[in-house]
Design brief:
Layout lengths: L6 E8 L6 E3 L11 E2 L1 E11 L14 E5 L14 H16 L3 E11 L2 H7 L9 E2 L3 H12 L1 H7 L4 E9 L9 E4 L9 E7 L4 E7 L7 E3 L7 E9 L11 E3 L13 E10 L2
Parallel strand pairs: 2-10, 4-12
Antiparallel strand pairs: 1-4, 2-3, 5-13, 6-15, 7-11, 8-13, 8-15, 9-12, 9-14, 10-11
Length: about 270
Amino acid sequence: MKDTPPTIEVIYLVAGEKRPVYFASEAGADAALNISADFETRKVNVQNARELRPAASLDRESFALAFHDTNVETFYGVNFQQRLYEQEISELVLEASGGTDVLVFDHTLRSDSAQVRARRNTREPAAIIHNDYTDQSAHQRVVDLLGTRQAQDIFTKRFAIVNVWRSVAGAVRRSPMACCDATTISPEDLVASERRAKDRVGEIELVTWNPSHCWYYYPELASDEALLIKTYDSSTAGVATRTIHTSFDDPFSPENAPPRESIESRLLVFFD
């Protein structure tokens, strides 16, 4: 196991008068971030989350590591065993979150290699600090998926959105994911920003610099591990409601390290 790099460079939003707009990329070799806003690069300390005692949890830091040895043989193309994988990650997230039911609603494949993106028709790593949902867009996503009538019933109870992030091609040695301890994030750090995709307009949260942010990552995330990231929680019971996250260039990554290939899956989590 390599030493944790003492500092990394991450990209924060510079707050301005205009509302930022994030244009979701199309998959392929030329996939790239496109956001109408100003950003600044900051150097931050990043700690080895494997050394946390107690281990990070969804309800405290808003991220967690799970051992998860999938039976899926490939995540690409028509041979992707989607139903099998969704059953596996549903069980995983239910156990980690304490929820009573889940709905898997999205899978996104990414790579930091243009060659891999061209061959696999995947997207680029998300290299800007962000959170996937605002309060408004999380609720709207439930409406989009379940319809207004069923959503109104869901809104009377607690619900959450959890991402399952994993490698699909060996240990992650390039462009790993860093997550911020949710207890070090202030509401003022989060800026609701428009997200425009081909089929939907929504919102994400971009993030302004706060020296209190405490960053972690799991070095060399293995194929039998999954990173769980809670991106929204409607609970008002004092648990973490979201965390910010970003990919980053690991300064200790070997020059010949293979490209990162990953999949992130999003799940609605329901509670009684």
